[in-house]
């Protein structure tokens, strides 16, 4: 297993977490009026994992689409003949 570590210098930690949380929609108060049980740090970690998973998913889908398209193109070229 690979571990990814992100180190944010202490003097800018609050700034980074505030900016990231704001950009990705973190709310201190939820829609039902209750306080968010997730800290900004927990939110950032969860969102980063979602971003990484989505990047992998998108790349693998693109690879599969390209392979399917190539197979279809090759199949058409070899299976269909006109006389």
How are the SSEs ordered, and which strands pair?
Blueprint: H1 13-23, H2 40-79
Mean pLDDT: 93
Number of domains: 1
Distance between the termini: 57 Å
Q: How many extended strands?
A: 0
- Low-confidence runs (pLDDT<50, min 5 residues)? none
Strand content: under 5%
Query: Structural class, from helix and strand content?
Result: mainly alpha
What fraction, in percent, of the residue positions are helical?
55-70%
| Element pattern in H and E | HH
Number of continuous helical runs: 2
Largest sheet: none
What is the C-alpha radius of gyration, as a whole number of Å?
Answer: 22 Å
Name the quaternary structure: single chain
**Globular, elongated, flat, extended or rod-shaped: what is the shape?**
elongated
What would your notes on this structure say?
It is a single chain. This protein is mostly helical. It has one domain (12-77). Helices cover 61% and strands 0% of the residues. The chain is built from 2 helices and no strands. The protein has helices at residues 13-23, 40-79. Helix 1 (13-23) crosses helix 2. The longest helix is centred in the C-terminal third of the chain and has 40 residues, at 40-79. It is elongated and about 75 Å long. The mean pLDDT is 93.
């Amino acid at each position: 297993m690979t571990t990814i570590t992100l180190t944010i210098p202490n003097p800018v930690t609050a700034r980074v977490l505030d900016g990231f949380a704001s950009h990705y929609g973190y709310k201190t108060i939820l829609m039902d009026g209750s306080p968010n049980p997730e800290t900004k740090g927990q939110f950032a970690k969860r969102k980063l994992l979602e971003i990484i998973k989505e990047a992998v998913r998108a790349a693998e889908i693109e690879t599969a689409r390209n392979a399917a398209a190539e197979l279809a193109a090759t199949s058409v070229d070899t299976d269909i003949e006109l006389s």
